[in-house]
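The instructor's notes for this session suggest beginning with a concrete chain rather than abstract definitions. Hand out the sequence below and ask the class to guess, before any prediction is shown, which regions might be ordered.
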Amino acid sequence: MWQKYKIKDWLTKIIALGLALFLFTSGVSILWTLTLKIPDFDSYFEDRIIAQSTKLYDRTGEIVLYNAHDEIRRTIIPLEEIADHAKQASIAIEDEDFYKHHGIKPTAILRAFWINLNAGEITQGGSTITQQVIKNTLLTDDRSLTRKIKEAILSIRIEQKLSKDEILELYLNEVPYGGSIYGIEEAAKVFFGKSAKDINLAESAYLASLPQAPSFLSPYGNNVESLEKRKNSVLDKMYQFKYISEAERDAAKREKVLFTKPENRGIKAPHFVFFVLEQLEQKYGQDKLRNGGLNIITTLDWKMQQQAEDIITRYGAQNRANYQAGNAGLVALDPQTGDILSMVGSVDYFDMEKEGNFNVTLAKRQPGSAFKPFVYASAFDKGYTPETVVFDLPTEFNTGCSAQGTPLSSGTTCYSPTNYDGTFSGPISLRNALAQSKNIPAVKVLYLSGMREAIITARNMGISTLKDYQTYGLTLVLGGGEVTLLEMTSAYGVFANDGVRNPYNYIVEIKDSKGETLEKYEKNSTQVLKPDVARTISDILSDDSARAPVFGFNSQLVIPGREVAVKTGTTNNYRDAWIVGYTPSVVVGAWVGNNDNTPMDRRIAGVIVAPIWNSFMRQYLSDKPAEYFIEPEPSPSDLKPILKGIWRNESDGVHSILYWINKDNPRGADPLYPASDPQFNNWEYSVSNWARSQSFNTNNSSNESNSNQDDDGFNSALSTGGQKVKPDETVAISVIIPSSQIVTRIEFFAENELLGITTGQSPNFSFIPKDKISNLKENIDIKIVITKDNGSKITLSDKLTLDLD
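After discussion, reveal the predicted structure:
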């Protein structure tokens, strides 16, 4: 008991001593802070901003791409020369209790303290407008607890020295609006071409929105939707606090505000620079980015960037004049590191009339056939080979429609795509199908590889914009999902780099004003694709002979004397033209189209966008040593004939690939019952028609099946092959419907007992005799009654032999 009281007494003394030390330290800190001299706001503000200017450099560290405070722009005006709506908007969104508190809001500080405590660092400040004035003018961007104490105490002192209107005037004259723009007067002139006293309600709401994240919310960037939401939030706050009426709020939300053309003030590679600033603003916060004196070495190759800008400008003007294509973009990366070497987001960043500030390399667009390599890669990973043959023939892919393309129920939309040139090749290898960008084989390859597997492959390679696989249909392989040029180019880098992914990267190193390294590039490689799969794709995309039937020899997809792999893509509506091509050390993607999604002239990507890529690659590779892709391993010799390119069999005839393989295990056992695959009948129908037209054998039944056929071409077969089966074994009945017939109903009988009913959509049926037949005997009569669309009926008969021993 004595020891218990002794320990308790000891703990009490420790706590008391700690509390005393805390109070003493706090008192000293408060007394020290109270002795701080408050300097002149205007002179101190500008001197500190210039001294702490953040700069962005190219990868050499010598070319300045951007100086955050180069030629600081700030015009000081009295509060009465600022529109009332502008004052009210800032108060409503930044500090609704501005005229009530005495510099700080204890509740906000406690809330921020709790958030920071849980985060383990200073992440939120709970700042009032007064605190922001102190932070913007007198203190550094340090996020320490000492700084927050100083900020709070100085805020109280300023409130004692200055009136509320004087503090608001300081705030509005010093608040950052992006880049070198400070103060509402300069912001009003830059963004709207007018003075702060003349801006209206909607314009005021936009300006009040910007200080939260000037780079991210810039009206000249890609996040105008976020800016619009923030502006509407400001208007809602103003209405909530009775600064404006409901009618005024709603009218301001509807108003179309025109921003002036951005000025070129010496910034280099503007799309890339603002992309980097936006990323870093989210990572470090605007305070540190704006006033941290950061030296940021980016990955940009300034020489490559100049070449890319010149090419985009030149071809952009030609495409606009000749093909009604108003915009273009280009990205170049190093696949071995992920470094972004060049980024051009439009024909002219400073052309606001044509939305030049919009960075199209970050925009979600449909990629057309440029998406196909991901699907083929997924198929090769599954066991299919470049020699594997599918049939390029008119094919109905919606199993809710007949093989002839007729809906089997109301509201069903059939899907039978065509190739871009309207022709069909018949049997074609996967190599030639991909190289020639055939659509029908690509849809079949997507089905064979699996929708889920194909999307996983694309995501692993760097495509983050795709949704859950269940939201897509087979159109995905033709570009039905939306992607960005940056991610597409980065993902193709996996093919270039032997299946290894290096996420795209824009930073080499970041140092703070003291020279301490905050961030430095470290390689983050992941093997996301089998090396031989990547090599196979590169081998196909660099095969000029394989693509020649469509593109011709020595087209714009060829760089003389160089081995390059390349793929184009054009959306069906001619709204997007893509090209992505690579060597082992560089991958380049380009896009042409219109920002508003209006269609271009009906030309394929090989005509509109390939010249941009070709010109850039020629310039870039002109002084580089020749490189070659590693050749893939040859396909094994013991594969099934269809996987080796043999599509014809003298005994079994000509069939679709689903007759020969199980799509989920192409190198496994032959399918016992091919017609159980829901796509089998539709694929087989087109192949049978083609084979008959070529006078090939069209036997549609397995050698092991017992079959019969009526005079109209209807055919049925039992999977038993005439052999005895046990009553508890599954028996499958396959029904082949001729191309000229439409079937609405199929009834299956055993000894006149109804086994089940299907439709022409799913004409095949399976059953277990002991579960369906009441009177089991050795020989069972099977009858299939087929009802056609005109009401007439066809009856097929067969025999089932049971092993009752």
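Then share the key points. The chain has four domains: 1-35, 39-296, 299-365+484-630, 701-805. The chain has a mean pLDDT of 85.
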